[in-house]
């Protein structure tokens, strides 16, 4: 079996990002760019990964952890110098070296696999692609019969060479011994006084010409970062639609890689699905929703502008519009959470509902409970959080405050406007309310006294 070391170049300063953060750690469609490159390398058969680091080295090492080994490029003297920084790793591994760029999150594992297969026994191979706008890229100069003569960088190219639209992508596949041998002869006699990795092809190389130029976008600034993210989100939208999910506007669909969506779900425009979500069959997510690390059960309706985080929404439930489910919320099923309702560490049994303007925090609520408008579980005394327990079948009237810790027994009724500070037995009515007084004719008399005061 062929031994392949994936060598990822990630030492650049990324000055055009205008940030102290290492460029490869910027997120593209939900995760750092370098993570896509590592995953692609592993998926195409690399048995080891070495990352060449430089600027922000400790941050990159901290993020990657044990997924790769590292080589340090102390001075930024060009791409050939970056590869030579990993000389020990290349010698120790032997076999073949797959050289990748840490700022190219769009490269597909399938493309790398095809490239490796096509490269065969060629000692040095690279991927080229034809582009509409070749400015800034190294041009692939071919001779008779289509053989590669050289790759010439933009600043070193003459007017005729600048017309070439076949460019180098920066991805190579080389025999490790041949790679190190050729690198030993690379000089810096060029417009940038740098050691170009492209010079290794002068002694002979195979060029695998890829089809999609967009796959090889190198991210150098935040405009290109947004372009890469857009492309990744669009890929995911296409994949979900092919699997039977209705996405009404793929251009405004934003889902992280770990999110799963089952067939017959419907996703409206401007929905954000962050982290590891599961959206089950038949559910509808309407516009403006942000869902993070949550499970949405079958046949749920998440109405416009809801925020759901680390929560579980049971089958047949309705949430929103404009509701917030905070971490620890569990809706057991057939629940209704209406507009301007906020929940946190709240479990609602099957059929229970809170239709509007309510806060339920640190609460255990049974089945078929009605929570009236304006209800608050008062769970915090300034020092500790306390729990409210509401058993099955309770009716909570409007504008009720439950001062935790408190327990409401099965089938009880809490009258509107009450402040509940004690446990309420099952089947009981609890009411805290001042006596209502009616003073007939009071308004006219009051107005009369006010007129006399003028």
From TrEMBL:
Binding site for UDP-N-acetyl-alpha-D-glucosamine: 9-12, 23, 73, 78-79, 138, 153, 168, 220, 326, 344, 359, 370
Active site: 356 (proton acceptor)
Domain Mannose-1-phosphate guanyltransferase C-terminal positions: 259-338
UniProt-listed Enzyme Commission number(s): 2.7.7.23, 2.3.1.157
Binding locations of acetyl-CoA: 379-380, 398, 416, 433
One BP term from GO: lipid A biosynthetic process
InterPro entries (alphabetical): Bifunctional_GlmU (IPR005882), GlmU-like (IPR050065), GlmU_C_LbH (IPR038009), GMPPB_C (IPR056729), Hexapep (IPR001451), Hexapep_transf_CS (IPR018357), NTP_transferase_dom (IPR005835), Nucleotide-diphossugar_trans (IPR029044)
Primary location class: cytoplasm
Binding site for Mg(2+): 103, 220
Cofactor(s) the protein needs: Mg(2+)
Coiled-coil region list: none
Cofactor: binding comment: Binds 1 Mg(2+) ion per subunit.
UniProt-listed SUPFAM superfamilies: Nucleotide-diphospho-sugar transferases, Trimeric LpxA-like enzymes
Subcellular localization(s) per the UniProt record: Cytoplasm
Signal peptide extent: none
Region feature N-acetyltransferase, mapped onto this chain: 244-454
HAMAP family: GlmU
Function: Catalyzes the last two sequential reactions in the de novo biosynthetic pathway for UDP-N-acetylglucosamine (UDP-GlcNAc). The C-terminal domain catalyzes the transfer of acetyl group from acetyl coenzyme A to glucosamine-1-phosphate (GlcN-1-P) to produce N-acetylglucosamine-1-phosphate (GlcNAc-1-P), which is converted into UDP-GlcNAc by the transfer of uridine 5-monophosphate (from uridine 5-triphosphate), a reaction catalyzed by the N-terminal domain.
Subunit and interaction comment: Homotrimer.
Family recorded in the similarity comment: In the C-terminal section; belongs to the transferase hexapeptide repeat family.
Matches recorded under NCBIfam families: glmU
Name of the protein: Bifunctional protein GlmU
Organism: Geovibrio thiophilus
């Amino acid at each position: 079996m062929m031994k392949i070391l994936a060598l990822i170049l990630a030492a650049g300063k990324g000055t055009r990002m205008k940030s102290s953060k290492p460029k490869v750690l910027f997120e593209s469609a939900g995760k750092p760019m370098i993570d896509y490159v590592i995953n692609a390398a592993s998926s195409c058969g690399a048995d080891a990964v070495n990352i060449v680091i430089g600027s922000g080295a400790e941050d990159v090492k901290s993020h990657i952890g044990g997924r790769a080994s590292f080589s340090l490029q102390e001075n930024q003297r060009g791409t050939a110098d970056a590869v030579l920084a990993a000389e020990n790793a290349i010698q120790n591994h032997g076999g073949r070296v797959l050289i990748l760029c840490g700022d190219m999150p769009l490269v597909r594992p399938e493309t790398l696999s095809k490239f490796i297969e096509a490269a065969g026994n060629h000692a040095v191979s690279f991927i080229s692609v034809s582009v509409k706008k070749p400015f800034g890229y190294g041009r692939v100069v071919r001779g008779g019969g289509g053989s590669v003569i050289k790759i010439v960088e933009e600043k070193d190219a003459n007017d005729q060479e600048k017309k070439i639209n076949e460019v180098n992508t920066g991805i190579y596949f080389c025999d490790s011994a041949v790679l190190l041998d050729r690198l030993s002869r690379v000089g810096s006699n060029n417009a940038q006084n740098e050691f170009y990795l492209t010079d290794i092809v002068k002694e002979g190389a195979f060029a695998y010409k890829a089809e999609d130029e967009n796959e090889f976008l190198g991210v150098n600034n935040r405009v290109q970062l947004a372009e890469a993210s857009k492309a990744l989100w669009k890929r995911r939208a296409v994949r979900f639609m092919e699997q039977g999910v209705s996405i009404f506007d793929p251009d405004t669909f934003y889902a992280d890689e770990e999110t799963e969506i089952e067939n017959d779900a419907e996703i409206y425009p401007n929905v954000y699905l962050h982290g590891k979500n599961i959206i089950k069959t038949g559910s509808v997510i309407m516009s403006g929703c942000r869902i993070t690390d949550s499970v949405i059960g079958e046949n749920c309706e998440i109405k416009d502008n809801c925020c759901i985080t680390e929560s579980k929404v049971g089958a047949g439930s309705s949430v929103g519009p404009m509701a917030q489910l905070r971490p620890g919320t569990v809706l057991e099923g057939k629940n209704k959470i209406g507009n301007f309702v906020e929940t946190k560490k709240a479990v609602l049994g099957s059929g229970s509902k809170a239709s509007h303007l309510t806060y339920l925090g640190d609460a255990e609520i049974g089945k078929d409970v009605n929570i009236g408008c304006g209800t608050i579980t008062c769970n915090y005394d300034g020092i500790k959080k306390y729990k409210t327990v509401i058993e099955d079948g309770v009716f909570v009237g409007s504008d009720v405050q439950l001062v935790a810790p408190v327990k409401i027994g099965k089938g009880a009724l809490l009258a509107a406007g009450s402040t509940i500070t004690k446990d309420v037995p099952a089947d009981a009515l609890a009411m805290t309310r001042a006596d209502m007084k009616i003073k007939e004719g009071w308004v006219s008399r009051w107005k009369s006294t006010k007129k006399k005061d003028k």
